[in-house]
Amino acid sequence: GDVLPQTPEGRALALAERLTLLSQAWSIGIRPSATNDAQGLRRAAGGALQILLSIGHRGDIRTLLDRVCPANRAHHADVAAFIQGRLKALLIADPLPADLVEAVIATTGMDLVYDAMRARALGSLVRDGSFGPIKITFRRAAGLVKEHPLAGCDPALFQSPAEQALYTALELVPDAQGEVDAMIGALAALKPHVDHLFDAVLVMCDDLSLRNNRLGLLKAVTQRFEGLADFTRMSVE
């Protein structure tokens, strides 16, 4: 809750100091426990995180750790996971649903600012009441195609207008990977088409070619949003 550094030099120094403390602590085997954090590692991680969020720095936190303490690279995956844990706690205290935060974190490349952007954007849908139905639809789709290996389908095998409607709608969705608002807009736009497919056809039908074609179509839909959140990790409620 303290005032963050206001100059680029101050932010760089404060960030480097905190990342150095964390990197060096991990390199000599020091970890915070539930009852002891004498070195203030949680506070250091929280401070580094708040600086990154305040400036909107995009990128893998491990890259910053490697620049600050290149000799400790072997420990930086664990340090990054620790800092990400502080982000998770921060977002849940925001408050955002824990399952939503877990679903977002699960798709990360350790870009903590992007994690926060996605979680908060989806959280805005929770607050306006529109996220529940979207979550149910895409959790169902993601669960069906989890073990299906390939995305894509053959329109010649479509048996229902609902399949063609979803395929056409998906083809019209622009590639918006990384653009959070555009991805959420596309998610909301495709929801009724996915719902219509579930109402109109039996995805897991006995005809193997039709089943695989429908699963491939749904896989293409879920792949479009896999950078947004892992819907299979969200609760059914």
Give a quick summary of the entry.
With 237 residues, the chain is mainly α. The protein has helices at residues 8-27, 41-55, 61-68, 76-92, 98-105, 112-127, 131-145, 161-172, 180-200, 208-224.
End-to-end Cα distance, whole Å, is 34 Å
Largest sheet: none
Low-confidence stretches: none
The secondary-structure element order is HHHHHHHHHH
Task: List how many beta strands DSSP finds.
Answer: 0
Q: How large, in whole angstroms, is the Cα Rg? A: 21 Å
**Overall spatial form:** elongated
Q: Strand portion, in percent?
A: under 5%
**What structural class do the secondary elements suggest?**
mainly alpha
Number of helices: 10
Mean pLDDT over the residues: 93
Helix content: 55-70%
Keywords:
single chain; 237 residues; mainly alpha
Break the fold down into its secondary structure elements and pairings.
Layout: H1 8-27, H2 41-55, H3 61-68, H4 76-92, H5 98-105, H6 112-127, H7 131-145, H8 161-172, H9 180-200, H10 208-224
Task: Provide structural commentary.
The structure is a single chain. This protein is mainly alpha-helical and 237 residues long. The chain has helices at 8-27, 41-55, 61-68, 76-92, 98-105, 112-127, 131-145, 161-172, 180-200, 208-224. The protein is elongated, with a radius of gyration of 21 Å. 31% of the residues are buried.
